[in-house]
Amino acid sequence: MAHEKGSISIHTENIFPIIKKFLYSDHEIFLRELVANAMDATSKLQALASKGEFNGEIGETKIKISIDKEAKTLTISDRGLGMTAEEVKKYINQVAFSGATEFLDKYKDVKEAQQMIGHFGLGFYSSFMVSDHVTIYTKSHKEGSEAAKWTCDGTTEFELTAHDKADRGTEIVLHLAADSEEFLENHRISEILNKYCRFLPFEIEFEGKVINQTRPIWTKSPNELKDEDYVKFYKEMYPTAEDPLFWIHLNVDYPFNLTGILYFPKVKQDFVFQKNRIQLYSRQVFITDEVKDVVPEFLTLLHGVIDSPDIPLNVSRSYLQADGNVKKINAHITKKVADKLNELFNNDRKVYEEKWDSIGLFVKYGMMTDDKFYDRASNFALLKNIKNEYYTFAEYREKVAINQTDKSNRLVYIYATDLEKQDAYIESAKKRSYDVLRFDGVMVDNHFITTLERKLENTLMRRVDADTVDNIVDKGETQEVMLSEDEQNSLKDLFKKVSGKETIKVQSLPPDEMPVIISLPEFMRRMKEMAVVQGMDYMKDLPAFLEVSVNANHSLILRLLKEQDEQRKEQLALQVYDLALLSQNMLGGAALTKFINRSVQFVA
Ligand code: ADP
Ligand code: MG
């Protein structure tokens, strides 16, 4: 073969500096690309052999990576199918360079290019991100073919000569650029290999050691595996996590290809949403842990791996969202997760209930964000009450139907978000034999309540302190206040003065309820909560929305009416008002100090 110098014909001259600039933050992916090519070359050779088109000895197939610190080179070698000189021209000069040109055309916008680079393999060309020049030594598997040496500095000029490489396969030598010498450090290369190549299907050797598992468990069949295998793999992937609750082994080959394992992690109540714990692979090569568009949003809270050659990684995010395959994958995963939960629920309700506090988080989040999932999950989603009893939606409806239906025939679900703070109200509800649900999850419950109200027919959700116990389920049986108009007005005036509020309600409440009750209407409270979530504090002034109800049947109130000493009357009224504030946890600072001093005087 003649020594050949040539010019690669592509329409963008000098793409190299532009690409280098684009890919600044993600230089390390060059290694993934080169190892992936080595892997492709090896599996292609095996495919040829199995079709009888290659009859030689396959022998060793390790992909080897080595560093020469002195020569400042990094070498990736394989024993795959190799290339003839003609093929180098075709595949490297044309395919690899046109791939890079195409990338440039697609991502003229620097921001988008940067976003995509983790997803988009630039292929062989990415080696120029870190190299001054690159040399390829390659010998084709084809009988009698001559080895070739190709050198290029990333511009369109290349050199191609014959070489005496004796062994089949390809060796890529990167002459690292001055600004890329980090890739001469063993630990840096180990780190990159571990990130991208940990589960590649062919052995990869670095520093004399094989660094990967060629048959990770998601590629195996579930009946080959025991629970311990799944847990062990989980621990390898997430060393600091507790044991998973359960897992789902995904295995689809029609209408798209997908394998993987999704783990439900154990979460604590003070759980912070931790996304991006699922890793996405394409034929066992790590692509990204940003699975946002591939996995339904609510499942990004799970852990595990998904491997699919059918996920188009080399396109923009908006395209990905519209992609038919991705949509099908989404729907499939959602269905699988729902099926698994349903199975757990049906097989062993007790165990399922024990796990509910953790599972519930995903289920609720899913029900809030995905209507289809809501429908599926409404069979196995549970409601938990303050006695820690669990009910399905249907069971709960039946449980409270008789006692908690209001005058307009609506069911009222009463809930508490803080068992300590709302204790006084919970006690009142218990006296009426009302059931109180427990929604004290920090992140999700607030929104879940709104979802339930939207989805459940004819049902109101009311927090236990949203009103006086008589009004919380408004049965239309409120009793007449037995006090005269004058008496009522005098009470209103007194409590207006004491509380500084414009409106005071005088109500006929049970004598054993508190003399004064403060409640925050459900609607107002939710408005406020929403404002807080949205980072607005215009409703910070919560006390302005409080409703004050005076219990006309309480002996203390009746005594107040009869009190002749104006000063003492006011002191007493203040005292009962403060007590009401106290039971809402709203008494603090100077007001609390005054209350305590006043209490001491009363007792003394
Ligand atoms: P892609 O892998 O997507 O085809 P690349 O730019 O990574 O694009 O590689 C371009 C082509 O160069 C490959 O399709 C393959 O034909 C050839 N090639 C690259 N690396 C090797 C290798 N190690 N052995 C044999 N052929 C290779
Ligand atoms: Mg490639």
Short structural description:
With 604 residues, the protein is α+β, with helices and mostly antiparallel strands. 40% of the residues lie in helices and 19% in strands. The mean pLDDT is 88.
List the helices and strands and how they pair.
Elements: E1 4-7, H1 15-22, H2 29-50, E2 63-68, E3 73-78, H3 85-106, H4 110-117, E4 131-139, E5 147-152, E6 157-163, E7 169-176, H5 186-196, E8 204-206, E9 209-210, H6 227-237, E10 246-252, E11 258-264, E12 278-282, E13 285-288, E14 303-307, H7 317-322, H8 324-347, H9 349-369, H10 371-377, E15 382-384, E16 390-392, H11 393-401, E17 411-416, H12 423-431, E18 436-438, H13 445-455, E19 459-463, H14 469-472, H15 485-499, E20 504-507, E21 516-519, H16 522-533, E22 547-551, H17 555-562, H18 566-583, H19 589-603
Parallel strand pairs: 2-8, 12-14, 17-18, 17-19, 20-22
Antiparallel strand pairs: 1-6, 2-3, 3-7, 4-5, 4-7, 5-6, 8-9, 10-11, 11-14, 12-13, 15-16, 21-22
Helix pairs in contact: 8-9, 9-10, 9-13, 15-18, 18-19
